[in-house]
Design a protein that fits this description.
This protein is mainly α and 192 residues long. It contains 5 helices and no strands. The radius of gyration is 19 Å and the shape is globular. It binds iron/sulfur cluster (SF4).
Length: 192
């Protein structure tokens, strides 16, 4: 058997105008966040679960109408800024504020093997991989180590819920590994 170099031909991705067939679900599309990394990490200081946010969250949860209005407001703002799909278990604080649910494969623990040499998504080659974008954003603010944490699988029963309410109520604690000796501490829940 020959031991010479192996040449692998890279297949082109689907055409940019590719669409799912009839009856097939539409795949999520990677979205470039519209909030600069610096601003996102500053905002995080205000939405973390402090006593005020916990109290507000508990009050809102007591009133079904307020809860619905709050969830709609969260959906609207995060859809515009991050392409949020309301998974209810927000990973943004440790992904450089690039939403992993915009990945067509919904990968929560880094990119697949199909990222193009320039960082293009394999499924939508006209868009950049959410994890490449997340790395660049996190690294630009000294948070690159956050991306080494292991995220637990998303619980699909919680789609549509407010992740902020879940966050403040502590239902999002342990969303990713902690106490792992990385340089930067976790930035969520009681661990902050
Ligand atoms: S709540 Fe889920 S879908 Fe929305 S931004 Fe956070 S990780 Fe993405």
């Amino acid at each position: 058997m020959s031991s010479g170099p192996v040449h692998v031909e890279l297949l082109p991705g689907p055409p940019a105008d590719w669409q799912p067939g009839p009856g097939e679900p539409r795949l999520p599309r990677p979205t470039e966040p519209r909030l600069a990394p610096r601003s996102a990490y500053v905002v995080q200081r205000f939405v973390k679960p402090n006593w005020l946010n916990r109290r507000v969250g508990a009050l809102v949860e007591r009133l079904p109408l307020a809860r619905r209005a709050f969830t709609v407001a969260e959906r609207k703002s995060k859809e515009d800024l991050f392409g949020c799909r309301m998974c209810g278990q927000c990973a943004l604080p440790v992904t450089g504020y690039s939403c992993p649910m915009g990945c067509p494969k919904e990968l929560r623990n880094g990119p697949c093997g199909g990222v193009g040499p320039g960082g293009a998504c394999e499924v939508y080659p006209d868009r950049r991989c959410v994890w490449v974008v997340g790395y660049e954003r996190a690294a630009s603010r000294g948070h690159a180590d956050d991306l080494r944490r292991l995220q637990r699988p998303v619980d699909h029963r919680r789609f549509g819920e407010s992740s902020w309410l879940n966050y403040w109520a502590g239902r999002d604690d342990h969303l990713w590994t902690d106490n792992d000796g990385l340089a930067s501490p976790p930035v969520m829940g009681d661990h902050q």
